[in-house]
């Protein structure tokens, strides 16, 4: 069996478990029209990727059997509309409460993030704070790289923005990220390119406060 077909079969197994709930190897073998040995090979690969969970179920007759269910990680493989929901809710808030309410909402998020990460910046040089900020943003999916261009000056690039769809509509997201960086780094931070404004990345120039 080629790799593409194997991958396709694993997707079908995940879809079956999503729509039907717990299934045994025998159940899957019958539905897929392949041998139980082949199913077990796919199951093993999915378990290795932490996408499946197994439990032992007693039968009315005979020995207990293993059944498989989706692990929490597998849920992320299925379509989600979180961003559209967020935008719809923000639109409703904007219509009902006005722009100032949206501003306060994003500023509140900024304050929470600042409180969450401030301790990670303590007793560090500016270079160490930039490195720590890169770790924080990478933990959150921003795909960061950074470099020092001269003494006390750094280039900080985010190649992905997990909230691009929101930032495209609500510029408060970008303003608050800039303010968050300035406060966490205790430095001068200038954004020269922005994904939400058509750039290839979000590019920041960071330098010592004068």
From TrEMBL:
Keyword DNA-binding: yes
Pfam families, sorted: HTH_11
Keywords: DNA-binding, Transcription, Transcription regulation
Highest taxon listed in the record's lineage: Bacteria
Name of the protein in its database record: Transcriptional regulator
Domain (HTH deoR-type): residue spans on this chain: 6-66
InterPro entries: ArsR-like_HTH, DeoR_HTH, HTH_11, WH-like_DNA-bd_sf, WH_DNA-bd_sf
């Amino acid at each position: 069996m080629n790799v593409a077909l194997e991958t396709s079969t694993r997707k079908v197994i995940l879809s079956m478990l999503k729509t039907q709930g717990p299934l045994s190897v025998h159940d899957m073998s019958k539905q897929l029209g392949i041998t139980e040995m082949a199913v077990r090979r796919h199951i093993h690969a999915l378990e290795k990727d932490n996408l499946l969970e197994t439990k032992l179920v007693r039968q009315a007759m005979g020995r207990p059997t293993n059944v498989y269910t989706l692990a929490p990680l597998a849920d992320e493989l299925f379509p989600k509309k979180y961003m559209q929901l967020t935008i719809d809710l923000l639109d409703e808030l904007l219509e009902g409460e006005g722009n100032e309410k949206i501003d306060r909402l994003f500023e509140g998020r900024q304050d929470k993030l600042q409180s969450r990460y401030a301790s990670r910046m303590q007793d560090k040089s500016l270079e160490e704070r930039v490195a720590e900020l890169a770790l924080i943003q990478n933990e959150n999916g921003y795909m960061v790289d950074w470099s020092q261009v001269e003494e006390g000056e750094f280039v900080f690039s985010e190649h992905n923005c997990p909230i691009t769809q929101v930032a495209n509509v609500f510029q408060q997201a970008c303003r608050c990220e800039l303010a968050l960086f300035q406060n966490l780094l205790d430095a001068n931070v200038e954004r020269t390119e922005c994904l939400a404004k058509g750039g290839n990345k979000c590019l920041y120039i960071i330098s010592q406060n004068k």
